[in-house]
Amino acid sequence: MEGMLRVRFDYAQRQTKDYSHLFRQKSRLELIRLAFYQICVEFTYAAETALASPIILSNGLSHTFMTMIWAFSPTLGFVFAPMIATLSDQTRSRWGRRRPVLLALGTAVVCGLMIMPHGKRLGLWLGDEDVPVEQMSGFRW
Fold this sequence. Notes:
The chain crosses the membrane at residues 34-57, 69-88, 100-119. The protein is built from five helices and no strands. The protein has helices at 2-14, 28-58, 63-90, 99-115, 119-125. It starts with a helix and ends in a 16-residue tail after the last helix. The longest helix is centred in the N-terminal third of the chain and has 31 residues, at 28-58.
């Protein structure tokens, strides 16, 4: 491990810009902060996994549609992740490049998790009809 860090450090010193600060030892506070970020990500995934399936099924969708909804998220990530990364790379803010994008995406995730349990009421408010699952017609698997 030490040899690999030495090679990376030597390579960074040969560059025209100074990247040596990236390879320094992290303080305890920095490690706690990084662990906190990872805990937040894991908490979001756990909440999504625990809440999404029962809510989707309680709204009357079949298991087939539920699995399609689960496949929708990684598909969107595959399409939009490069776009968001490019946007983040081009962002110039007093908060830095990553923080504004992370704040916006984090806020969107929290709002989505708060709205998700109220999906049926939101659909009715937007004009959808309250039809029992047994009486639904159309495309169903």
